[in-house]
Amino acid sequence: MRTQILTKVFLALVTSATAQNTATGTAAVAAAAVTAKSLSPTSHVPGKAFDRIAIIWLENTDYDMALGDPNLAYLAKKGITLSNHYAVTHPSEPNYVASIGGDYLGMNNDNFNAIASNVSNVVDLLEEKGISWGEYQENMPYSGFEGMAWVNQETGANSYVRKHNPAIIYDSVTAATDRLAVIKNLTMFYQDLAANTLPQWMFITPNMTSDGHDTSVTVAGTWTRNFLDPLLTNPNFMNNTLVLITFDENHNYVIPNKILGILLGDAVPASLVGTTDSTFYNHYSELATVEANWGLSTLGRWDVGANVYSFVAAKTGDVTRAWSSPPFWTMFFNLSYKGPFNTLSSAGYPVPNTTAVYAGRAVLQKIKDTWGALVGDTPYDSRLEVPDGLHPIDY
Ligand SMILES: *[C@@H]1O[C@H](CO)[C@@H](O)[C@H](O)[C@H]1NC(C)=O
Ligand SMILES: *[C@@H]1O[C@H](CO)[C@@H](O)[C@H](O)[C@H]1NC(C)=O
Ligand SMILES: *[C@@H]1O[C@H](CO)[C@@H](O)[C@H](O)[C@H]1NC(C)=O
Ligand SMILES: *[C@@H]1O[C@H](CO)[C@@H](O)[C@H](O)[C@H]1NC(C)=O
Ligand SMILES: *[C@@H]1O[C@H](CO)[C@@H](O)[C@H](O)[C@H]1NC(C)=O
Ligand SMILES: *[C@@H]1O[C@H](CO)[C@@H](O)[C@H](O)[C@H]1NC(C)=O
C-alpha cells in the first residue's frame, strides 16, 4: 500500500520534472505530439449570471480602430460594448498573465517568463469549485506544448506563440500533467464542440495572423465573426454562455491603453443587447466577474477590487465603483511597475493580501497557507485604482 503511494508520487514528480515540452524543432515537435495527453473534463456548476464563459483575445488595436471594424461592430450589436475598458500595461505577455493571475508582477517584456509555482491563478480558483477549464490556442502543435513558438510549417510565418498563452506561463500549471492536457489547439476545440465536452471556462487565442498581430484589425474582425457566427446558434457552445471579445492592449503607446470589449452570448439579457456599458473595467474584471459569478475564492491581488461587469454584478449583488484617484486623465497604463519580471526595475514577488475580504469573497485557502505570514508586506488593498509604472505603489 505504502509502496504504491510512494511510487505514484515519485512518478508524478518525474513526469513534471522531465516533461518540459519546450523543443521547437520539427522532428522534436512531431515526436512529442504522438504522446501528448489531451483531456476534456466537463462540469455543470451553475453560475449566477452565466454557466460558461469563452474569452477571446485579439491583438494590439486602439479602441476607436477596433470599434470601426465592420465585423467587430456587427458582433458588438449582438451584445454589450464596453466603452471604458483598459489593458494594464505593454507589451502583450504581461496583459495575458494579469488577466488570469491578478497582477503582471512587473513584467515589461515578451520573454520566456515562468512564474513561480507558489503564485496562483484562476485555474486554482476554478478547480477548487470543480469548474472545468481549458485553453484553445490556434495552431499550437500539440496539447501542453511549452515551447516559445511554432511557425506555419509551409510558409514559416508566425503562428502559435507562448506569450499569448496565459496559463502556460505559470509553473503551477506546467507542473501538472492534467493541467497541460487541457491547454489545447483549435482543432481540439472543434472536437470538444462536436462531442459536447467544452469546459465552463475557456480562453481562446487565434494565431498571429488571425488575431491581427501580424495583420490588421480587419483580419482579426473577420476571423472572429467567422469563428463565432456558427457558435451563436450551437447549443453545445451556447448554453447560458457569456462570450468576451477583447484585445490584449492598444497599439499606440502614448495614448491611454484603452481597448474594445464586447460581451455577447445567450447569457446577456435581451434588454441589454445593442447597449453600451461605460463602467471602468480592465483585465482584472475578467477575474472578478468569474469569481462573482461562481462565488469563487479570490487571488488576493488586483482581482479583488476590480469591477464585475455590471449586468453580472446586478445578479451577484456586486457594486461597481468609479475610478477616484489619481486623476483618470493621468492614467495611461503604458508602463510596467517594478517586479520579478521587470528587466529594468527588479523586485521580489508581491505578497497577496491574504486577509482581504471584499464583496463577501475571501482569498483561496492555499494562498493563505503559502503567503499568510507575510501579509504585512502586501501592496494590495482591494482598491479599484490599480497602479501603473507612472503611478507605482511601493512595497
Ligand atoms: C492539435 O493538437 C492535437 C493534440 O495534441 C494534435 O494531435 C494535432 O496535430 C494538433 N493540430 C494541429 C493543427 O497542430
Ligand atoms: C492561422 O489560422 C488561419 C485559420 O484560422 C489559417 O488560415 C492561417 O494559415 C494560420 N496562419 C498561420 C501563419 O499559420
Ligand atoms: C445546458 O446546460 C444544462 C444545465 O447545465 C444541461 O443540463 C444541459 O445538458 C446543457 N445542454 C447542452 C446541449 O449541453
Ligand atoms: C506613456 O504615455 C505618456 C503620455 O503620452 C508618454 O509621455 C510616455 O512616453 C508613454 N510611456 C511609454 C513607455 O510609452
Ligand atoms: C487587505 O485588504 C483589506 C480589504 O479587504 C484591507 O482592509 C487591508 O488593509 C489590506 N491589508 C493590508 C495589509 O494592506
Ligand atoms: C515564492 O517563490 C519565489 C520564487 O521561488 C520565492 O522567491 C518566494 O520566496 C516564494 N514565496 C513564498 C511565500 O513561498
Task: Give an overview in words.
The longest helix is centred in the N-terminal third of the chain and has 17 residues. The protein has 395 residues and is α/β, with parallel strands linked by helices. It has one domain: 3-Layer(aba) Sandwich (Alkaline Phosphatase, subunit A). The strands form four sheets. An eight-stranded mixed β-sheet has the order 7-4-8-1-9-10-2-11, sandwiched between helices. It has a two-stranded parallel ribbon with strand order 3-12. A two-stranded antiparallel ribbon has the order 5-6. The chain has 13 helices and 14 strands. Helix 5 runs parallel beside helix 11. The N and C termini lie far apart (48 Å). The protein binds 2-acetamido-2-deoxy-beta-D-glucopyranose (NAG) (6 copies). The site of one 2-acetamido-2-deoxy-beta-D-glucopyranose has 6 residues, from helix 13.
Give the arrangement of secondary structure elements.
Layout (H helix, E strand, L loop, with lengths): L1 H17 L7 H10 L16 E7 L4 H5 L2 H8 L2 E3 L2 E2 L5 H10 L20 H7 L4 E5 L11 E3 L6 E4 L9 H4 L2 H4 L2 E3 H9 L6 E5 L11 H15 L9 E7 L13 E4 L10 E3 L3 E2 L1 H11 L15 H7 L40 E2 L2 E2 L2 H7 L24
Parallel strand pairs: 1-8, 1-9, 2-11, 3-12, 4-7, 4-8
Antiparallel strand pairs: 2-10, 5-6, 9-10, 13-14
The structure holds 2-acetamido-2-deoxy-beta-D-glucopyranose (NAG) (6 copies).
